Amino acid sequence: MTFTQIFFYFLAGVIVAFSVLSVTTRRILRAAVYLLFVLMGTAAFYFMVNFFFLAAVQLIVYIGGIVVLIIFSVLLTSQINDRLDKPEMAKVVIGGLVAFGGLIISALTLWQYPFTASSAAEGDYSVAEIGRQLLNYGEGGYVLPFEVISILLLAAMVGAIIIAKRIKPKTDD
Amino acid sequence: MIEGVPLSHILVVSSIMFFVGVYGFVTRKNLLTMLISTELILNAVNINFVAFNRYLYPDKMEGHFFSLFIIAIAAAEAAVAIAIFISLYRNLKSIDVEDVDSLKH
Amino acid sequence: MPGLEHTILIPLIPFFAFLVIGLLNKTLSPKVAGMIGITGILASTILAYQVALGYFFSFGQVDGVFQKIIAYKTSWLQFTDSLVIEMGAILDPISAMMLVVITTVSSLVFIYSWGYMKGESGFSRFYAFLSLFSFSMLGLVLATNLFQMYMFWELVGVSSYLLIGFYYDKAAAVAASKKAFIVTRFADLGFLIGILLLSFHTGTFDFQLLTDPNGPAITSVGGATFMGLSVVSLSLLLIFIGGAGKSAMFPLHIWLPDAMEGPTPVSALIHAATMVVAGVYLVARLFPVFAFAAPEALEVVAYIGAFTALFAAVVACTQPDIKRVLAYSTMSQIGYMMLALGVSGFGEDGLGYTASMFHLFTHAFFKALLFLGAGSIIHAVHTNDIFKMGGLRKFMPITHITFLIACLAIAGIPPFAGFFSKDEILAAALVSNKLIFGVGFAVAGLTAFYMFRLYFMVFWNEAKIEGAPHESPSVMTIPLIILAIGSLVAGFVPFNELVTSNGSLLATELHWEVAAPSVAIGLIGIVVAMVMYRKASNLPSKLSSSLGGIYKAAYSKFYIDEVYMFVTKKVIFNLISRPIAWFDRNIIDAFMDMTAKMTNLVSEGIKEMQSGQLHYYAIYFASGAILFVVLMLWMR
Predict the structure, then answer these.
(1) Residues with Cβ within 8 Å of residue C279, at least 6 apart in sequence
(2) Is the entire prediction scored with pTM above 0.80?
(3) What ipTM did this prediction achieve?
(4) What would the mean pLDDT of C202-208 be, rounded to a whole number?
């Protein structure tokens, strides 16, 4: 077994373990931190497949942005020492069945399907190439989704401000 | 591609992550933990995209870009969701999903 | 035809009067509405006389033969190149004659109603309906094709329905109007099928083409047959069913006596002089087709006419209601006209045709007179029951004299109008069918008897009315006088020159060998009636008790209504309608109800799914998605 293989399976173990932990722990802050580990594992996986830019984005946006945001709002909306209620038994059973059933089905399907890895040479994954493709308006270019996403982000930003803004109740004085 | 690791192994990992996310979404009551489960689901999808990209079409970057966009959308989604949670908390003093059911009427 | 387009105005003027009165019903005062109606009908009367006189005496004849002239024609509905529905106005001897009859009687009735309906709440409505009726009837007689005729035929039915049910707060009137509409409508089904059959086989609706002796209808006799009859005969029989319904021929006559629930001027106009002769007019209109292509259908017409004449005359002898006696008398006289048409031939043998039209013409005058006279009497004494009247000759001299003239006319006493036409009918019948002649002869005697029974009961006998009934106002008596003059002189119109089956002159003479016995039997009828009813006596009751069952049966109109009631209520309702209704309610409706109930049940069941709980929505969604995937995998 090569080092790469060992590292991958270790990574897979970390991802699975922390995923499970983050949805089962009864401390909300810990759930956020476990999510952090899962995301870091994913970023590591991106590094392993040479998608350095994506890995960097993952680290910056997810870990630096979303997880921090989540932790902040956890602190805003609950006490550090609060423990979440135990989930209802019925929901655990039903949710478990659905999740497990779905997993079995997709795993079986994956196992049976003969994926053959392509032998084509690796493309150019450099940041320069990514930038070129992202702003390319020719065939295979991504300028349209890029612009759409930027508008979406702007809308989300404005929306978030409006929603979270404290609306002062109207008073007569 | 990663030497010695078949594609299906990566996909199984992402499947587990996905259904763990589903499980969490169903069982958790706190909206923030539900958001965390959603992030897990999105992340699983990202891994799929990247894996397919690298294993089946290494000369192209479609999966890469899709992952990129999904991350952007996830960020937007998280921002709006957290704004909603804060607004809810301010009004209901709770971010428990079972308290938020007035839209059924 | 150029120069005659204004013929179409004859029906249109009353139609506009109807529209104006009908639309401005609430804003016009009743007097103005009445004036509009009367002015409209007078205008079209003047036009009609101008056109009819012009037709008969100047432009109608070519080489001594009356032509069918299309005065106006427009295509109304164009379905395909060959299927065009036309609207127009035809002028030939019978339509010109009918124009005169309808406009004369209509305008007199319009004027008469001014007095008769005075102070009634629906005065304007009454004039609106009368105008609508005049429009429909004039449109009917001017119809250039079967389809237009059918349309106006139905319009006539509708306006008759509206007028019979004029007193719509009276249950009997409402029932009568419904009865009239349904019975005639039922008959019109035959008419419609007949039209479809005939036009399908001849390829035309047009009267000019249909009645051309060398045209497609008449030359296609050798064509298709059905159940032993040629299709033309069959379709003509079906058309005759429609005519029989409107003209109250047995056994579709049951609506006419009940129609007397309408105001009396309406009875005079619609149910005596004009609408009820529409059936006769229809047969006359298609007469060449009958005569050449379907002699067996014509025979049916003759027998039904004869039977109705006899049947109605017998019933009329027993009825106590003045208007019902007149109604049965109308049926009897129309039976006479049908009989005359039925025994007639074409051309040289066309005496019956001429006689029928002649009788239609004279009958319009004296029957309208009788009804308007009856209206005048009812107006004065406020009852329809002749056993409650009597001795009225002292109180109502004008009504008395005019009524007497009408009775003499209908009884066929010379020189009154009915004598001439009845004589021609009997002469025509004698030539062609002895049995029918016998029936006609007996009916002549019966007619004289029941009319004078009515006359003596009302104007002689002993006075049973309390107080002094007064003569009607002049607006009512003047129409009576005009009609009485008409009844006196109408018999001298030379019909054999004007109205014949083929348009050319028909040589006729007074048939004394027929006329003398018929006058004699008429006189016998009058004398018998005088003996029985001139003074109060127990003779009538003795006679009726000695006749026993026959009298009772006639009094109950031979139980025809009861037979209809039995057939409809007991047989059709119970055996057909009820099972269908049960099926509708318990199978069709129940199926619909079940669908609704099932939907309801399912909704009740799954209503809980919409809990507002995000978790459950997520579960449904996830399990649904997984099921979908499983399905796709399994189907692969």
Answers:
(1) C240, C242, C243, C244, C245, C246, C247, C249, C334, C338
(2) no
(3) 0.90
(4) 78
